[in-house]
């Protein structure tokens, strides 16, 4: 994999690269000074497939880098095909009906990596989010689109290396159930009837053994993880429930925000958070499920991470982070308190 990534960097970023440690290269950053900075500040870990610029603070994964450089989904697929090659043996073992996790050399890499062209199929403007105050550049950056067949807003979910693992579709109509639908491959319902994939019948032929467990991922962690991976100091991760809360914090400047896609923390999500030496700020919804989730998640994390804090809503009538304007959002984060103190205030043991 090293050779593939070095080749990508030389062809798309900078031909003048140098080694800066085992598995690490440095070159000129393509995102500032027109790619002609004097002192190279763009660092790439060729074993992990992660990059970070220590000058402009752009960071991410190799697939994300190629998207940022303007490559089409088909071109990204072609350039990152070596990731898919690494899981061919996994697929062979899956055909024997064995569990995918047992055959993944890296438990944090998606067992089955989806084509980037899937996102291109949903390349429509989510006007409902724009009308709610979400900014077009952020929606484009996060590759959020619209599934016009199922009438849902599409949110791509990636592993920490930027590989597309699955999609979640958010309801566009109040009457739609469920509110958030995890897109599945071919599967059986409770009666044993075969249900075709949410992507379409073509998907069942291309990915006959596909399974996607969204609670094994943290949404937007593929952008946060590289920044913390390269960071020399203890970081801070803001943990929210859903996609919209995460986007809202991102566009208000809180770049280290990730979404649980729910009110609970799975063991795999916990392991993801433990990969970086970071403090955790819990910013779940200000309702009963959110407060119950805050206690359970906080208890699960407090003995394993440097510290766990809880954001405090300045207005108790506001129920979720994306209800808050920039000033109240800042106040909620600045007035955060340790989990222990937050529980004492609510007389929670």
Report on the architecture of this protein.
The protein folds into three domains: 2-57, Zinc finger, CHC2-typedomain (DNA Primase, Chain A), CATH 3.90.580.10; 109-216, DNA primase DNAg catalytic core, N-terminal domain (Alpha-Beta Complex); 221-345, Dna Topoisomerase Vi A Subunit, Chain: A, domain 2, CATH 3.40.1360. The chain starts with a helix and ends with a helix. The radius of gyration is 21 Å and the shape is globular. It has 15 helices and 16 strands. It is of the alpha+beta class.
Summarize, please:
The protein is α+β, with helices and mostly antiparallel strands and 349 residues long.
Query: Quaternary arrangement of the chains shown?
Result: single chain
Helix % is 25-40%
On the 0-100 scale, what is the average pLDDT?
89
Q: CATH class of the largest domain, anyone? A: Alpha Beta
Total domain units: 3
């Amino acid at each position: 994999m090293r050779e593939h990534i070095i080749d990508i960097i030389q062809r798309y970023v900078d031909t003048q690269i140098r080694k800066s440690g085992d598995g690490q290269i440095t070159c000129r950053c393509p995102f500032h000074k027109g790619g002609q900075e004097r002192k190279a500040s763009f660092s790439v870990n060729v074993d992990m497939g992660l990059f970070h610029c220590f000058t402009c603070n752009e960071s991410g994964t190799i697939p994300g880098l190629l998207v940022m450089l303007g490559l089409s989904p088909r071109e990204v697929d072609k350039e990152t095909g070596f990731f898919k090659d690494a899981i061919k043996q996994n697929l062979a073992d899956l055909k024997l009906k064995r569990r995918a996790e047992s055959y993944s050399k890296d438990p944090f890499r998606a067992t089955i990596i989806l084509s980037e062209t899937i996102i291109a199929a949903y390349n429509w403007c989510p006007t409902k989010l724009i009308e709610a105050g979400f900014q077009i550049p952020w929606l484009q950056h996060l590759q959020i689109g619209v599934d016009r067949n199922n009438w849902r807003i599409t949110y791509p979910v990636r592993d920490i290396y930027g590989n597309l693992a699955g999609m979640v579709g958010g309801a566009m109509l109040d009457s739609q159930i469920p509110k958030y639908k995890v897109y599945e491959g071919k599967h059986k319902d409770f009666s044993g009837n075969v249900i075709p994939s949410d992507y379409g019948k073509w998907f069942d032929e291309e990915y006959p053994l596909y399974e996607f467990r969204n609670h094994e991922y943290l949404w937007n962690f593929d952008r946060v993880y590289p920044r913390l991976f390269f960071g020399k100091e203890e970081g801070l991760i803001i943990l929210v429930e859903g996609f919209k809360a995460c986007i809202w914090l991102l566009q208000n400047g809180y770049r280290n925000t990730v979404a649980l896609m729910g009110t609970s923390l799975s063991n795999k999500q916990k392991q993801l958070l433990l990969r970086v030496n970071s403090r955790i700020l819990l910013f779940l919804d200000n309702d009963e499920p959110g407060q119950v989730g805050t206690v359970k998640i906080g208890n699960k994390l407090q003995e394993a991470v440097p510290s766990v804090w809880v954001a405090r809503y300045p207005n108790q009538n506001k129920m979720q982070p994306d209800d808050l304007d920039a000033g109240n959002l800042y106040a909620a984060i600045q007035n955060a308190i340790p989990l222990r103190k937050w529980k004492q205030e609510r007389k929670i043991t």
